[in-house]
Structures are given as structure tokens and as C-alpha cells.
């Protein structure tokens, strides 16, 4: 048990800067098997070889890393060990209490703090454990799926860094035909300021399985978070995934996520980007088998000086697949958003049915939204539509609502909330909807 | 009794004068039909009464019980009892009819200006709403009474509504807000005969002695269902003739070309 309970102070303190030594010490502190150390070291070498993103890279043209310096962060936080739910801070307990979940895990800084099973997952062969433990307990599964299929370490500079230093994260494995009806809840609270965090989510479903996973990402004051999400959907399986990012506004946040979908798999991915000073998120759905159904839904609401960038790929490799992307964002103050997306239809992916829409509501003239939708179609029998809007609150809407007795702030608030509703309507967990609504309310007001 | 008085009202859009001295007095208990050709400025009059920011009042006044409402925001006018039923109600995506109406009704009935909510809890002024159960009950009753399908409560405001559904929802909103004066801007336009009947029935149900109506219309046909006390002819930004219901019949016989022949000269002179 001790291996996932404690990473000792002495080891953490010996960790100096971002280096191979740090990688080795991190792995040793976790008593990791040789293969994982090798995996990390390989990734570290790749990280060292890869150049930092340049403003000339298409993905980074509108999102500059000005002011970002790895040496400003401690590479890793110290794990503080597990506690009972009652010993968690009040707001984490509230987060847990709000959701009716099948099971939950709370991570603080670089380690697991608390795990609760509300239902008997083992009975159905469902695995819901922290990745650190999974490396030791399910090495075959982890070796097979961890950064091998969906997100490989050398995908970009941040995935390489992540692969070398990953710390927290959930491993979810749902065997064939097993169905987990209530959500699995994962909370990461990166509480120590100024550190790096590398949260991983690995969800594997076998044929016909069903699962809902919610990732809540908090904290990261003055810190760095380079997370990876891997969703590997077996044939006909159904996955609902929610990534709710609400970091401090001083956090640098880099997310790379990809869903790999077999025949007839069904995915709904909700991406919420509320926090961080800067977010660059790469989100891909890869429809590998025929009959796949993917929905990629996002909301963002930068305020102040926040900069939020989503870059998406809908990869249609197989025929008869459906994908629907909808990202809606509102912007206040001097904030900025970037949306870039491509629907790519490979040769032979006939009867593809793909949509991509990005809507932006500008609430202050000093805010700016860039939207660059795109299509790359190499099959001839497809239906693809895309569209982007950048608009202000319609004065005619405001007048109509005011003529019915709503004050101007009430009318504007209602219109902004309504703008997000198209996504909120498709969020499958009620408590998440309420939470998102209250954040929207707070962001409009503040 | 309340009085809505429009005195020598001039209004312009981008320096183009559209209302050129409108005089009209509407009392509670009265139905006053305002008929006129397209482009005569009827809808502008409706918007100006409701306080649309696009129009500038350059002369004259609008008085509610002797007090000018020109300086009031649209929501303040609404709270004082003025309701405009739009010719083209806008669709507001993501805002449900029930959610919107609860806020509207709570404002108009003063719930939101109370320091405590219905359960006696104190809260921020402006955040208190009419109790959900009470509101639901009333909304359901009104929906039934005004022939609006209950499913509309959850639907987004005017989003994907047919022309008839929009107009019926306008009448429903009027029933919930209980205004003193209702300005109906072509509530009959674009409706087939069945939908027209439903809307006219709604108006008749709401035509109580404590409420006045300004019924703006291009066609005489709604007046077969809603009986006005007065009919005025509106032409080129002002009222050119006022009389009883016989004016509408005359207009139907003679047509708007007659109005143009009769009053066109005088205006350009």
C-alpha cells in the first residue's frame, strides 16, 4: 500500500528542476517497474529534442507562449497521502456531495487523496483506480493502452513532458457489456502554487460497455498543468466524458485529448474551459470503425486577460460515421479566444455525416474571438457543414425582453445563459449542469 | 380609470421623421383600432410607445395618467402597465418561455424589488422570484385558457414557433403580465382564419374594463372578431381620421388608395 500513499519529502526535495534526474527520482519514489521508468526516460529524451512551439506553427500562431518559462515552476508537487473524506477540505467534500456518483477519486497535488466506491464496481469487473496504482496492479492493460494508441508521447512538446512526468489521473476500464450508470467522478486539486502537474485520464471500454466519467480540474495557482485525456472506445460502447477545467486564472494549461473509436462506438465529450490564464487544448475524435457516433461539445467564457484556445480534429477514417461538434463561448473584458477545427474525411469514408459549429458572443468591445473552421474532404459521398459566428448581444433581443419587464442586466444575462443552453442541454449529468449554470451566472455578474 | 395620452408626437430614425404629430387618447375599457397602409408609421408608433431606443422623439409627449413616460426605459414602461405585442416577436434561443416569463412576471409584480423571498429568506434585491409552484399553477391555467400547448413552457422563446404560435404566445404573455394598456402591432398578420380566431378570442377575454387596447392592423378582418369602440386611420405618420366602427367598413369599401387620394395632398402641401 505504501507505494501509492507517500512520496516522501526527502525525494521531492532532491528533485531539482526539469531534468532526467527528476524523472528518475519521480519514478523511483513511486516504486515503478522498469518498463515505466524506460517509458518516462524515452519521453524525456523526446521532450528534450522537440523544439518549443513557434509563432510560425499554425497551431500556435494565435496563442503565444510569451511569458511562459518552464524554469518558473517546480517540476512536481509533493503528494500528501490519503485521508478520509471528512478530512478533505470543505469545498472538495461539497464537490463530492453534489454528484450522485458510482465512485470517486480526489487527487491533490501529485497524489491520490481519497477514493470512494459507492457501488460495487469490482463485481462487474470494472476498474476505477488511480493510474499510479494501476501501473502496479494492471501492468498488461496499462502497457497496452497508456499513451500507445490515442495520444503518443511525441505528439507535441507538452505530451512528451506529460509522458515523462505524469503524476495524477484515473484509469477506467469497463469490460464487455458492463454498464456503469452513475458517473465516475475524478477531482484534481493542484493546491501547491507554482508547480507543474500532469493529470492523465485513461478510459478503456470493451465491446458494448457503457460509462460516464467526469474530470474536475481545480487549483494550479501560478502553476502549469499539462494533461492528457485518452478515451479508447471498443465496438458499440458508449462513453460520456466531461472535462471541467476551472483552474486559477494564473495557471498555464495545456491539454491534449483524443478519443479513438471502434465500430458503432458512441461518444459524447463535454469540454468546459472556465479557468487558466492561458489554455491550449488539442481535442481529437478519431472514428476508426464504421457506424461511429461522436459529439464534441465545448463551452468557454474567458474574462479579464484570459486566453482560451481550442483546436479540434474530427477524423473520419471509416464510412457511415457521424460527428457533431459545437463549441460556444462568451468573452468579457480583454479576454481572447481561439477556435480552430478541421473535419477530415479520409478516402473511402463514404456517407460521412459531420458538423462543426463555433459560436462566439462578445460582451465587451475589448474582447476578441478568432474562429477558423475547416474541412478536408477526400471522399465524394459525404455531408459536411461547418460554420462560425462572432457576434454581440442582439439589441433586438434585449429590447424584446425589456419590453416584457426585464431590466437590461437581466435581459443580457438571460441571453448569455441562453447562448450556452444548446450545450448545457446535452450535458448528461444534472449536477454538472447546475454547476455550469452557476459558473456562467458568476462569470456574467463578475 | 387610466389614460394613455399621445400628444403631438414626432419621432425620427436617423434624422428621417416618421411620426409627424400623432394625437391619440386611450382610456381603460376602450378598444381603439388604428388602421393604415404599409409604411405609414404604425409600427413605429408602437415601438415609440414601448420605448425602442432606435427611435428619437423629437417633439410631443406620451403621458400615462398625466405623467410623461418618455424618459422611462422599456422595462419601466412595462412595469407601469404598458405592453407591446410584437408584429415579429424575436426568437431567443436557449431561453425557455417559463423561465423568461417567471422573471418578467416577478419584476412586474414587484417580487424582485422585495428584500425577502416568498419563504421569508432575505436575499439580494433583484434576485427574488415569484414562488415556482404559484407561478407554474398560474401559467398552466393561462395556457389552457389561451389555447397554448403546455409543452410551450419548456420550449425556447419563439424559437421554431410558427407565426400563429408566436402570436398566441404574445397573447399568453399579455395575460400573465396583466397590463393596463396593450398595444397590439399587427397581431393578426400572417394568420390563417383558425389562428386569427384564437388570437381574437384571447384579446376579447382580456378586454376587461380595466384595460385599454390599441389594435394596430392593416386589415379589417380582425375587426370581425374584436369590436373596436374607435377606429382611426393612420397615414404618413399621423392620424387623419377617427370615428366609430363605421370607419373600418368605409375603409374596406374604398380601400387605402382612397386614403391616399383624400389625405395625400394635404400632407405634401
Give the tags.
heterodimer; A: 446 residues; alpha/beta; 2 domains; ten-stranded mixed β-sheet; 11 helices; 20 strands; 37% strand; disordered N terminus; B: 269 residues; Rossmann fold; six-stranded mixed β-sheet; four-stranded antiparallel β-sheet; 10 strands; 34% helix; 25% strand; globular
What is the number of beta strands of chain A? 20
Overall structural class of chain B, as computed from helix and strand content, comes to: alpha/beta
Tell me the count of domains of chain B.
2
Based on the structure, what is the oligomeric state of the protein chains? heterodimer
**Gyration radius of chain A, in Å:** 21 Å
What is the C-level CATH assignment of the largest domain in chain B?
Alpha Beta
Helix content of chain A: 10-25%
How are helices and strands ordered from N to C of chain B? EEEHEEHEHHHEHEEEHH
CATH architecture of the largest domain in chain B: 3-Layer(aba) Sandwich
Q: What's the number of domains of chain A?
A: 2
Instruction: List the uncertain runs of chain B.
Output: none
Description:
The complex is a heterodimer of chains A (446) and B (269). In chain A, helix 3 (20-29) runs antiparallel to helix 4 (34-49). Chain A has helices at 2-5, 9-14, 20-29, 34-49, 90-98, 131-137, 139-145, 157-165, 395-403, 408-424, 430-445, and strands at residues 103-108, 111-117, 127-130, 169-174, 184-190, 196-197, 200-205, 210-219, 224-233, 238-247, 252-261, 266-273, 278-287, 293-300, 307-316, 322-331, 336-345, 352-362, 368-377, 382-392. A ten-stranded mixed beta sheet of chain A has the order 2-1-5-8-10-12-14-16-18-20, covered by helices on one side. In chain A, strands 3, 4, 6, 7, 9, 11, 13, 15, 17 and 19 form a ten-stranded mixed beta sheet that branches. The longest helix of chain A has 17 residues, at 408-424. With 446 residues, chain A is α/β, with parallel strands linked by helices. Chain A contains eleven helices and 20 strands. Chain A is globular, with a radius of gyration of 21 Å. Chain A has two domains: 2-288, no CATH class; 394-446, no CATH class. Chain B is an alpha/beta fold. Chain B folds into two domains: 3-91 and 180-268, Rossmann fold; 92-157, no CATH class. Chain B has helices at 42-50, 74-79, 97-108, 132-145, 163-177, 193-206, 246-254, 256-268; strands at residues 3-13, 16-27, 31-35, 56-64, 67-68, 82-85, 181-185, 212-217, 230-235, 238-243. In chain B, the strands form two sheets. Chain B has a six-stranded mixed beta sheet, with helices on both faces. A four-stranded antiparallel beta sheet of chain B has the order 2-1-4-5, covered by helices on one side. Chain B is globular. The model of chain B has no long low-confidence stretch (mean pLDDT 91). Classes of the chains: A alpha/beta (446), B alpha/beta (269). At the A-B interface, helix 9 and helix 10 of A face helix 2 and helix 3 of B.
Amino acid at each position: 500500500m505504501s507505494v501509492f500513499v507517500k512520496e516522501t519529502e526527502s525525494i521531492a526535495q532532491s528533485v531539482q528542476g526539469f531534468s532526467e534526474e527528476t524523472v528518475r527520482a519521480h519514478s523511483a519514489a513511486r516504486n515503478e517497474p522498469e518498463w515505466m521508468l524506460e517509458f518516462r526516460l524515452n519521453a524525456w529524451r523526446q521532450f528534450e529534442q522537440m523544439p518549443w512551439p513557434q509563432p510560425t506553427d499554425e497551431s500556435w500562431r494565435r496563442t503565444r507562449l510569451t511569458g511562459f518559462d518552464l524554469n518558473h515552476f517546480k517540476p512536481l508537487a509533493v503528494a500528501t497521502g490519503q485521508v478520509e473524506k471528512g478530512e478533505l477540505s470543505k469545498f472538495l467534500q461539497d464537490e463530492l456531495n453534489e454528484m450522485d456518483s458510482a465512485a470517486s477519486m480526489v487527487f491533490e497535488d501529485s497524489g491520490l487523496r481519497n477514493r470512494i466506491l459507492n457501488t460495487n464496481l469490482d463485481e462487474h469487473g470494472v476498474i476505477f483506480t488511480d493510474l499510479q496504482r494501476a501501473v502496479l496492479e494492471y501492468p498488461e492493460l496499462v502497457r497496452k493502452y497508456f499513451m500507445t494508441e490515442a495520444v503518443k508521447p511525441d505528439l507535441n512538446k507538452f505530451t512528451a513532458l506529460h509522458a515523462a512526468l505524469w503524476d495524477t489521473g484515473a484509469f477506467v476500464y469497463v469490460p464487455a457489456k458492463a454498464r456503469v450508470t452513475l458517473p465516475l467522478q475524478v477531482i484534481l486539486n493542484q493546491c501547491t502554487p507554482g508547480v507543474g502537474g500532469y493529470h492523465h485520464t485513461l478510459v478503456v471500454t470493451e465491446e458494448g460497455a457503457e460509462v460516464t466519467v467526469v474530470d474536475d480540474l481545480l487549483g494550479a495557482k501560478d502553476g502549469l498543468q499539462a494533461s492528457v485525456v485518452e478515451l479508447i472506445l471498443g465496438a458499440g460502447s458508449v462513453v460520456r466524458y466531461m472535462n471541467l477545467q476551472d483552474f486559477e486564472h494564473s495557471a498555464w494549461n495545456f491539454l491534449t485529448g483524443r478519443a479513438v473509436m471502434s465500430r458503432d462506438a458512441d461518444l459524447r465529450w463535454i469540454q468546459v474551459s472556465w479557468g487558466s490564464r492561458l489554455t491550449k487544448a488539442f481535442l481529437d475524435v478519431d472514428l476508426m470503425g464504421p457506424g461511429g457516433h461522436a459529439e464534441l461539445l465545448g463551452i468557454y467564457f474567458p474574462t479579464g486577460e484570459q486566453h482560451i484556445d481550442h483546436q479540434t480534429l474530427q477524423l473520419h477514417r471509416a464510412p457511415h460515421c457521424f460527428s457533431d461538434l459545437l463549441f460556444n463561448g462568451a468573452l468579457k473584458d480583454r479576454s481572447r479566444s481561439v477556435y480552430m477545427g478541421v473535419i477530415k474525411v479520409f478516402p473511402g469514408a463514404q456517407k460521412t455525416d459531420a458538423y462543426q459549429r463555433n459560436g462566439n458572443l462578445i460582451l465587451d468591445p475589448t474582447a476578441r474571438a478568432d474562429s477558423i473552421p475547416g474541412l478536408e474532404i477526400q471522399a465524394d459521398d459525404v455531408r459536411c457543414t461547418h460554420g462560425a459566428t462572432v457576434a454581440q448581444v442582439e439589441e433586438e433581443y434585449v429590447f424584446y425582453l425589456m419590453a416584457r419587464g426585464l431590466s437590461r442586466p437581466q435581459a443580457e444575462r438571460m441571453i448569455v445563459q441562453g447562448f450556452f443552453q444548446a450545450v448545457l442541454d446535452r450535458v448528461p449529468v444534472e449536477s454538472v449542469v447546475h454547476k455550469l449554470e452557476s459558473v456562467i451566472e458568476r462569470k456574467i455578474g463578475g | 380609470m387610466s389614460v394613455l395620452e399621445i400628444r403631438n408626437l414626432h419621432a425620427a430614425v436617423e434624422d428621417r421623421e416618421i411620426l409627424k404629430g400623432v394625437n391619440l387618447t386611450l382610456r381603460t375599457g376602450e378598444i381603439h383600432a388604428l388602421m393604415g397602409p404599409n409604411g405609414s408609421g404604425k409600427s413605429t408608433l408602437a415601438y415609440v410607445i414601448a420605448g425602442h431606443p432606435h427611435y428619437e422623439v423629437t417633439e410631443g409627449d406620451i403621458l400615462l395618467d398625466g405623467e410623461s413616460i418618455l424618459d422611462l426605459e422599456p422595462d419601466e414602461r412595462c412595469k407601469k402597465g404598458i405592453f407591446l405585442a410584437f408584429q415579429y416577436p424575436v426568437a431567443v434561443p436557449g431561453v425557455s418561455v417559463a423561465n423568461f416569463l417567471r422573471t418578467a412576471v416577478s419584476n412586474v409584480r414587484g417580487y424582485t424589488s422585495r428584500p425577502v423571498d416568498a419563504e421569508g429568506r432575505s436575499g439580494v434585491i433583484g434576485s427574488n422570484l415569484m414562488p415556482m409552484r404559484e407561478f407554474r399553477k398560474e401559467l398552466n391555467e393561462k395556457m389552457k385558457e389561451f389555447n397554448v400547448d403546455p409543452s410551450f413552457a419548456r420550449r425556447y422563446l419563439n424559437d421554431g414557433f410558427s407565426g400563429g404560435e408566436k402570436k398566441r404566445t404574445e397573447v399568453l404573455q399579455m395575460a400573465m403580465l396583466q397590463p393596463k394598456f396593450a398595444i397590439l402591432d399587427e397581431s393578426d398578420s400572417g394568420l390563417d382564419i383558425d389562428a386569427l380566431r384564437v388570437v381574437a378570442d384571447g384579446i376579447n377575454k382580456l378586454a376587461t374594463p380595466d384595460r385599454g387596447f390599441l389594435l394596430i392592423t392593416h386589415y379589417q378582418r380582425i375587426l370581425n372578431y374584436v369590436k373596436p369602440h374607435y377606429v382611426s386611420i393612420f397615414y404618413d405618420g399621423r392620424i387623419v381620421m377617427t370615428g366609430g366602427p363605421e370607419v373600418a367598413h368605409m375603409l374596406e369599401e374604398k380601400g387605402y388608395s382612397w386614403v391616399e387620394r383624400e389625405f395625400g395632398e394635404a400632407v405634401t402641401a
